[in-house]
Amino acid sequence: MTKTPTEFSRKAWIEACRFHDLDNRKVLDQVIESARKLSGEKAAVLLDLDSTLYEVGPRTAKILQEWNASPSSREFPEVREAIERMKPEQVGYSLEDTFYHLALNTQTPSAQAALKSMKSFWGARFFTNEYLDFDHAYPGAAEFVKELYKTGIELIYLTGRDEPGMGQGTRKRLLQDGFPWEVARTHLLLKRDFHLDDLEHKAGAANYVHGIGHLVASFENEPPNLIALSDIFEQSMHVFVDTVYSERAARPKDGLYRITDYRSFV
Ligand SMILES: [Mg+2]
Questions:
Q1: 259, 48 in Cβ contact below 8 A?
Q2: Which residues are in the CB-under-5-Å shell of ion ligand 1?
Q3: How far out from the chain centre does Cα 111 lie?
Q4: What are the residues whose beta carbons fall under 8 Å from the beta carbon of 13, sequence distance 6 or more?
Q5: Distance from the CA of 261 to the center of ligand 1, in angstroms?
Q6: Helices 77-85 and 57-69: angle between axes, nearest 10 degrees
Q7: 43 DSSP β-pair partners
Q8: Report field, pTM of the whole predicted structure over 0.85
Q9: How far apart are CA 171 and CA 17, in angstroms?
Q10: Rounded CA gap, 223 and 226, in Å?
């Protein structure tokens, strides 16, 4: 009898996985080493952008400050005050998470109304070229990717961002932040349409990788995406970038890699 594998979300998923017992630098060096071994053959690395190479909290923080300054927030003085005092580390994956970090109750009718107003304000801005200007590349991320590129590998930036809304800003930021881009062996896979499912888009990228050759490693902050890729590419390294992630549950797995930052490359 086959049992449906149990899925877990967030901390419970992390605890249920058995990651290789290596520090950040050792994981990153191992990716570079594996890429080097395949030099001369066609091989690729998949790199997610949001919350993998880029910290998007500042993008949300900027939007929330603008909401605070807009007439939309007038009815919610308590929330405005909390946003006013918000520290960068209090920006969560979702606006609900952010409310939680700000010790704001999400259950009252007024909080629900504030969240609704904030969400529509945020949703109209977060997925746009203009607001990508507020992201921060994680310290050391570009330096690491540059080292990796020197091995001769193909770099595939694989993101749930959509071409119409965010393509231009994404390319601009890659160049501006010093990630290899507009050079040979670099690829960017965006969703052609905003409404496509992220997971389907990412799993669909497998065909693109197969067209190139081997997959050395994938980097992802979203457990379901990482698991989907690891199911397709069983021989590759799959690196969970432990920054922020959604509540979407995933099957735990052994043999994954985990990093918390790229600072050892600064
Ligand atoms: Mg991501």
A1: no
A2: 48, 50-52, 221
A3: 28
A4: 7, 223, 249, 250, 252
A5: 14
A6: 140
A7: 214
A8: yes
A9: 34
A10: 5
